[in-house]
């Protein structure tokens, strides 16, 4: 808990407030979307923001085309960004790539809205290159795979890192004497297949990837055979734009996605996302990587772009043959591929793409619905219940009640630490239903101690000594404790999976404390009773020990009377 830098639990929406986001579905001509697609979108968004069902996020449908998402906590910009992300994943072969600035065509009107580059000496806007030196993204590599893209210079050497190195002289510098190319000249220079239409080439030339909206028109449409796309994130101060071929693998073919930590032994210095394809997707991925490998060495067609929501996440070069096995890995530089980025990317890919595109109609910060007064009332109620249990144990069990009180304290500490750790690692947030579940668990935990103590007293009433009674009582009590806790845990498990909202939160808290109860009874209460049985205070049955034979009505051993020899009745 202290290693994570947090010592207090996170609070839920009803106790701490949060952020409310209203999403509106985008449809043609403003028509209402199909109800089935809206229901599927609600399910996917709920999985994203409430993946484990314990983060207290709420997702509800409002009207026919709106979805309202309530996320607990302040400053939830990261979660808000994930909510409306369509997460449509596509794998497309690259056919052309150059710097993301517009290319001035002969006879075309210059785009006055294009933003100049921060470094004018990098790649002028009129430069065009089909060489890999203009393309190598290197932020992510796919599959088993690819060594860096070869440099344009014949004397260049390949580095063992996943990031290609570009020779400064690889991209030709434009000079003021160069005349703008015509559309046909640009198409010829890019060495595009005959199937690429003039409209796509024209869009590629005019597209700017340096604006606030870098999503090219039609780039997220899987039905388009040829699309123009921009990099999702800049690298080395530059964005690149691409002409991509037909979709080779759809995101629906991804079976799982997991964020993987850096591993220096495997040569990965940054976080990555490991993908596993379904059977059909594995075959498709092997085919597209095989087709890319057949392209000429150094050609952009050697690259396969990983496109997320119409933007290129990475475009690795396939230099070691087709990638079979049904796996792929997306990773990049440590600056851009952080733990947060990798975890978010894996999260949206894991649960699939939304069936509709949404726009964020409104984002509002909301206050708590219950506030500190209700939280204080819940804590007071829990404290009163705990005090009553302690008083009962001390009055009825006396010295043995100290064992129960100590066990309750240990269970409370473990529960508190668990809530804090779960909040930091899986987004668990303490809401009023959780608090109710924790309060109810006080009685469940105390019940386990009472079962053991009563079994121990039964053994003493039968005339056995304390030490053997401790073990004999434990053998009888542990079965009862395990059965009782198993029934409670199964009930909590059923409620957690079948219920939603507050009931699921109550079930989670009750299941957590039931597991903690088993741990405390087996590894603290029983060993403590064993140690105390060796002391004179408990071993000799002191009146205040709670194990006094006279108080327990222990029967005295009967003594036999010898009959006189030879005496007759």
TrEMBL record:
GO process terms (BP): intracellular protein transmembrane transport; protein targeting; protein transport by the Sec complex
HAMAP family referenced in this protein's UniProt entry, alphabetically: SecD_B (MF_01463_B)
Major subcellular site: membrane
Sorted UniProt keywords: Cell membrane, Membrane, Protein transport, Translocation, Transmembrane, Transmembrane helix, Transport
SUPFAM superfamilies documented for this protein: Multidrug efflux transporter AcrB transmembrane domain
Name of the gene: secD
GO cellular component terms, semicolon-separated: plasma membrane
InterPro entries membership: SecD (IPR005791), SecD/SecF_arch_bac (IPR022813), SecD_1st (IPR048631), SecD_SecF_C (IPR048634), SecD_SecF_C_bact (IPR055344), SecDF_P1_head (IPR054384)
Name listed for the protein in its UniProt record: Protein translocase subunit SecD
Record-annotated Protein translocase subunit SecDF P1 domain positions: 38-94
General function of this protein: Part of the Sec protein translocase complex. Interacts with the SecYEG preprotein conducting channel. SecDF uses the proton motive force (PMF) to complete protein translocation after the ATP-dependent function of SecA.
Organism listed in the record: Actinomadura rayongensis
Gene Ontology MF: a single term: protein-transporting ATPase activity
């Amino acid at each position: 808990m202290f290693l994570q830098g947090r010592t207090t639990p996170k609070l839920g929406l009803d106790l701490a407030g949060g952020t409310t986001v209203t999403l509106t579905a985008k449809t043609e001509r403003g028509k209402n979307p199909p109800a089935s697609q809206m229901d599927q979108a609600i399910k996917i968004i709920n999985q994203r923001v409430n993946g484990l069902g314990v983060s207290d996020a709420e997702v509800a449908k409002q009207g026919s085309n709106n979805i309202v998402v309530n996320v607990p906590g302040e400053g939830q910009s990261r979660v808000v960004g994930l909510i409306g992300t369509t997460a449509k994943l596509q794998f497309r072969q690259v056919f052309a790539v150059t710097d993301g600035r517009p290319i001035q065509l002969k006879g075309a009107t210059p785009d006055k809205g294009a933003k100049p580059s921060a470094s004018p000496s990098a790649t002028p806007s009129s430069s065009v290159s089909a060489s890999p030196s203009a393309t190598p993204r290197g932020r992510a590599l796919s599959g088993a795979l690819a060594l860096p893209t070869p440099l344009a210079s014949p004397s260049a050497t390949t580095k063992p890192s996943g990031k290609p190195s570009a020779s400064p002289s690889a991209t030709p510098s434009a000079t003021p004497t160069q005349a703008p190319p015509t559309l046909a000249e640009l198409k010829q220079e890019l060495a595009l297949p005959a199937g690429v239409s003039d409209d796509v080439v024209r869009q590629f030339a005019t597209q700017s990837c340096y604006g606030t909206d870098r999503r090219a028109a039609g780039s997220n449409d899987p039905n388009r055979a040829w699309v123009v796309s921009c990099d999702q994130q800049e690298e080395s101060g530059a964005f690149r734009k691409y002409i991509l071929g037909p979709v080779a693998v759809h995101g629906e073919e991804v079976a799982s996605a997991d964020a993987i930590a850096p591993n220096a032994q495997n040569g990965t210095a940054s976080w990555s996302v490991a993908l596993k394809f379904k059977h059909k997707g594995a075959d498709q991925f092997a085919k597209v990587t095989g087709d890319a490998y057949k392209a000429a060495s150094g050609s952009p067609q050697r690259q396969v772009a990983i496109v997320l929501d119409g933007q290129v996440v990475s475009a690795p070069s396939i230099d070691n043959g087709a990638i079979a096995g049904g796996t792929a890995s997306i990773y990049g530089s440590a600056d851009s591929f952080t733990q947060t980025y990798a975890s978010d990317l894996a999260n949206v890919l894991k649960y699939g793409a939304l069936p509709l595109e949404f726009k964020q109609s409104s984002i509002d910060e909301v206050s708590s619905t219950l506030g500190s007064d209700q939280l204080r009332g819940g804590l007071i109620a829990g404290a009163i219940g705990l005090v009553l249990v302690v008083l009962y144990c001390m009055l009825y069990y006396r010295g043995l009640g100290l064992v129960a009180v100590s066990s309750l304290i240990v269970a409370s500490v473990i529960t508190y630490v668990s809530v804090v750790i779960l909040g930091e690692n899986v987004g668990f947030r303490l809401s009023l239903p959780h608090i109710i579940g924790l309060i109810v668990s006080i009685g469940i935990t105390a019940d386990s101690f009472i079962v053991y103590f009563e079994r121990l007293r039964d053994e003493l009433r039968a005339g056995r000594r304390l030490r053997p009674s401790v073990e004999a009582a434990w053998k009888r009590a542990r079965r009862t404790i395990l059965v009782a806790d198993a029934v409670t845990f199964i009930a909590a498990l059923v409620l957690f999976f079948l219920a939603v909202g507050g009931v699921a939160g109550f079930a989670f808290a009750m299941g957590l404390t039931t597991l903690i109860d088993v741990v405390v009874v087996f590894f603290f209460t029983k060993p403590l009773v064993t140690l105390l049985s060796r002391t004179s205070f408990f071993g000799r049955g002191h009146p205040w020990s709670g194990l006094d034979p006279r108080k327990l009505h222990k029967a005295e051993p009967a003594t036999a009377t010898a009959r006189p020899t030879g005496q007759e009745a």
